[in-house]
Amino acid sequence: MSLINLKILFSVSISLIFLGCAKNSLVYEEIPVEMLYSCIDYDKVVDPNFDSDDLYAFWDIFVADAKCSMSSSPDYDKLNTDVNIFYEYESDALFASGEVLDYGAYAASSCNDSVVRVGIAFRYWNDINIWQKLGLMYHEFGHDVLKYGHSLNPDDIMHASSPFASSYNGFIESKNRFFEKKFDGLRYLDCSWYEDYSDGTNVPNHPSMLHDCNKDHN
Question: How many domains does the chain have?
C-alpha cells in the first residue's frame, strides 16, 4: 500500500473516531417524569389562551379542587356567597421611588364564613409563574375559607414566607397536604373576637382580621 493510501486511510479512521464521539455526545437518555395525580385537570391554566388576570378563575379552580379533594366535599361557592378578589397597584411614581407594596397578597375576611376578600399585589403577581399563582391563591383561600393559620414548613402552601412550588408536581404535593390537613404546625385562626360583630366588613382593625402575606412568597 502506498504512503498516500496509508495517509488517506489514517485520515478516514481519525474522522470516523471523531464522528463516533460526536454522535455519542448527542445521545441523552430521557428519564420520564411521572405526573402526580390530581382529581381535577389543570390543563386549563397551562393553555396559552388562559387569562391569568381573571382572578375569579382561580376561585373556581379552588372550589372544584376542594370539593373533590376534601373528605367533606364542601361546596364553597354556595357557602361563600360574597367573593371579592382584586388587584392592588402602586403608582409608577411610587414604584420609581423604590417604595412598592411590601406584600404579595392578603386575606381580609377570614372569620366571616360567607365572605371571601383577597387582595393581590399586581406587580408581584406578574413576577411569578402559574403554579406559584395557584399556590398564592390557595394560600389566601386557606386563610379566608378554611381559617388556616401559617405552617412551619417552607414547602407548605400555608407557610408565611416561602417560595411557592414552581412546578406542577411541587404544587400537587403541597396542595394535597393542604386539603388533607397534613402540613406541619396545622393550626386555625382564632375567630372568637368576631362573635361580637354581625358584619365582618365593618369591624374595626383587629390583628386577626387581615393576613398580609409578604413578598418572600415568590
Answer: 1
